[in-house]
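Instructor's aside before we start: the two examples that follow are unrelated to each other. I chose them only because their records fit on one page, so don't look for a connection. First example below.
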Amino acid sequence: MYVAVKGGERAIDNAHAWLAEERRGDKKVPELSVDQIREQLSLAINRVMAEGSLYDPDLAALAIKQSRGDLIEAIFLIRAYRTTLPRFGYSEPIETSKMACDRRISATFKDLPGGQVLGPTFDYTHRLLDFKLAADGEIPDAPNKQANQENVPHVAEFLNNEGLIQQETRSDATPPDLTREPLELPADRALRLQALTRADEGFTLGMAYSSQRGYARNHAFVGELRIGAVAVEIDVPELGFAIEIGEITVTECETVNQFQGSKTEPAQFTRGYGLVFGQTERKAISMALVDRALRWEELGEDDLGAPVQDAEFVLYHSDNIQATGFLEHIKLPHYVDFQAELELVRNLRKTAFESQKMEAAE
């Protein structure tokens, strides 16, 4: 039961004022600008855009500043703002094979057409604190920083040419829009992927990790991980063809998984897939692992009872905004609810005590 609470406006106003003061911090330190956040905290920007389902680095930076760096609160702000925006149409599916890759690696094939592009990554750093950054030293420009502009085929196609990997079927059906319609089960793969791409990164990572530790058959290789810019096109009925309206940066991951076959499918490799806004590779890899684990039924595998195989468990608990809302509502006033339960416990204790007295008297 939820009870409306009146009053307290002055206390709330004071709390907001205190929040603004804490957000600003020591006024002797220069204020952090939205431009600085956008340009220097790009990975945080990417997460907010991905889980907020809105590609706008400026708004993501503003949300991060307003939320004092609480990314889930920033994602909440972005989603709330998103609901106010009109929708003018739907874009065409992006062509990731035409991506201008800043980063493109494969753990399965060493020699790739176009080569492996390491790009900007923490993978080969020593994870030691760099005190030069605290000294505000200038960072030199990277040499040979140029995106691969050539069309590069997906690595899985090499296996596809030999018939060694499961064929993917493309559907022209438009899946439900989770930003406008609630999630309903059973969910097909397209809807599951849509939910996973805006799922909480930490939750998705935990589910993916569990699948690697034996809570699902998920021995995966990163067939390919690519990050770069892709064109966004929209069909204009008056023109009769699609036109490019801009570019977005995305991370795409395709995993190659062992599959010994089942009653319905021969031995072959299978795939997991992840696609996320911005440079968000940990999330994209996690998404691909969870996607593959959720495909057990369509591949004719056994249900091992692993949490990551349970679509209802994964999809209904992966959204951090829903989880946050339900979790944080318990700190709001529940005075009437608690008083009712308090009275119930008192009555139960009184009844039990009286019963014990009667038994002792007998």
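Example two begins here.
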Amino acid sequence: MVMILGGLILRSLETGAITEGETPFWWAIVTMTTVGYGDYAPSTSEGRIFAVLVMFAGISLTAMFTAVISSIFVAKRIREDKGLEKVNVKNHIILCGWNRNADKIIDSIQYLSEGRRKDLVLINDLDEETVARLKTRYRDIHLHFVAGDYTSEQILQRASLEDADTIIIIPSDVDASIQNPDEKTILATLTIKGLEPNKRLIAYLYSRDNLTHIKRANADEVVISDDFGAYMLASHVVDPGIPQILNRLLDNVSENRFKRVDIPSEFVGQSFNNLFDHFRNNNGSLLIGVFSEEENLGIGEVLSADSSALDAFIERKLKEGGVSLQEESKISTVINPNKNYIIKDGERAIIIP
């Protein structure tokens, strides 16, 4: 509007080349933006006074435009820091909940990624200062934050659930009002699997009593809080030496930790013994087993919520029929098989370097 009005008014105040054709409009836009080519200039007093007004109008509009654009970006950044903005990432990991072990989980993901920067989206109720500290600490991970309840569909969509690769749910100790954290974990699993049933979901439980419920919610993997700890304590008493070895095998910074590797295609159809010799002779690694991912019929998908004689009868008959009721994992593992075990297509190897 300033350009059009300025051109029309200048045409009425001036004479000569500056008033011809589109020239007055060209002069107005050049003057407004303070470019000032100097190819055309008003010659009358009235024209020069009007030019000053156009200059101030241009400066004001430019400043206003810059302020509006800046405020948009600043507001967006503030909303991102507060976890109120949608995260636009793909093939990322979503970590729902927060407790004292969450730092260790992120640290392990960062180390085990071996230089490949992953996008990790946190969904919890942490304060901005804590989130900022985490982003500074874990610079090798693209850390994003969404504030809110991870059982809410809206919050999950803000974390780009539909484009996620894996979802991890851990019990949250941030909210003191939660009496049984496992119940929220189960509810979140039901919500996520209802929205995206094919997404890989790993759930962490405090109590084994809730295992049937979480498997019925269709969690792909379940980690129980005290299983490993109880075994380690007993081993320190009964089998000293085993806990120390396990610590090294499971330590993410240990050179001798468990690693999964691809099996060379030429060994598919060959014996486990040949593959064992291959790893041992090539780099000194010790092959301890193979694994493959498959769909198992979990007992939680068959039985009712309450144990009963009918449930026991169904479980017994399915086992007699050779139906796998494995609850622990949908990953099929074979540890130290017979040397004549034949390697199948799709299997991967677990080694100790």
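Strands lie at 93-96, 119-124, 142-147, 166-169, 200-205, 221-224, 259-262, 286-293, 331-335, 348-352.
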